[in-house]
Amino acid sequence: MKRTIVYLCLLWIPWIALAHPGARISDQVRYTPEDQKVFEKVMDVLVPLRNESVSVLIMKAAEAMQETPYVGGTLEQTPEMLTVSLARTDCILLVEACVCMALTARQEDHGFEAFCENLRQFRYREGITDGYLSRIHYTSEWIRQAETRGLAVEVSRQIADTPLDQSFSYMSVHADKYPQLAADPILVEGIRAVEQKLSEGTFFYIPKSQLEKNLDKIQHGDMVCFVTNTEGLDISHVAFAYEYYTCEHDCCPDGRGCSNGQRQMGFLHASSSEGKAVIDKKTLIGYANGIGSCTGVRIVRFL
To answer: Residue 5's closest CA among 58, 66, 72?
Structure first.
């Protein structure tokens, strides 16, 4: 689940990642040898495909990350520094990792340090790590920064043009659920200021009632953000849209390109219930309709 909701469901002591002692960037980045091995494995898949579109690379990375164990709370460590978690993941970390590995594969420098810098540019405000408040905690702000950098565009308005009445207050109201906030009232005030600024923004979404008729406008590799009615919170979960085809006539391997084939829209995500990254057995509509607190989705497309 996204950073702000992790604490709602996962309040145990987080797994503690250790910086690789021999790394050149060990004083700036927290990671393990296992994380670096996962990076190298995925990049072996992506680099030969570096001239493909970003969406193709993202989904190749996501497919390679299947079966990665789900673990929440990995970012909640002190001191604050960029934490890479590829051997274990949650939903937003999976999205970040796959997008940043895709971008790194397209660069001249596709090494681990370049990947870390790409990750920093998504996760921290203005790409600068400067304490807990510099980290982006709400997915809406994460999306806005990616758009500002020209790396993504939210297409929710183009698809459904439905305004979303959104306010932000969850973290400051529930500061006791966040170890750093619970220990520092000054940080709570800082988060409240961020929330007030975000609450001034304008947002759009696709209500669940309009999702079925708009499925053809969602593309393979889009980031799907599940909007929640939890007070003060914007997004409860994120995933990648995963297009596939079915055929009831057994006349083709997967239904794609077959006159009898039926397009289905599923999703690939880090699932807390499955305990790992998976292509979900449910369709996108089935998942959204099965969650009472989900009011719809927002769609982000990477460029």
So the answer is: 72
- Tens of pLDDT along 116-148? 999 999 999 999 999 999 999 999 999 999 999
Cβ(126)–Cβ(180) below 8 Å: no
Query: Which CATH number belongs to the domain containing residue 19 in this structure?
Result: 1.10.3670.10
Please state whether the peptide bond connecting residue 69 to the residue before it is cis, i.e. omega within 30 degrees of 0: no
**Range of 180's domain?**
3-302
pLDDT in tens, 183-217: 999 999 999 999 999 999 999 999 999 999 999 99
* DSSP structural state of residue 16: -
pTM of the model: 0.87
122: nearest Cα among 180, 156, 102, 11: 102
Mean per-residue pLDDT for 76-97? 95
Q: How far apart are CA 115 and CA 99, in angstroms?
A: 10
How many independent structural domains does the chain possess?
Answer: 1
The secondary structure of 139-189 as a DSSP string is: HHHHHHHHHHTTSEEE-HHHHH-EEE-----HHHHTGGGSHHHHT-HHHHH
